[in-house]
Specification:
Oligomer: single chain
Structural class: mainly alpha
Helix content: over 70%
Number of helices: 2
Number of domains: 1
Radius of gyration: 12 Å
Strand content: under 5%
Distance between the termini: 28 Å
Order of helices and strands: HH
Length: 36
Amino acid sequence: MDYKKETVEILQKINDDSLLEFFYRFIARVIKNRGY
């Protein structure tokens, strides 16, 4: 699987501000759960 390609496709789909906010919150949650 081409993870870089999938990431680019996902980012291209995130044009709505609410989706972008959700994406950032998800990343922040993952980082927090990892203890960083």
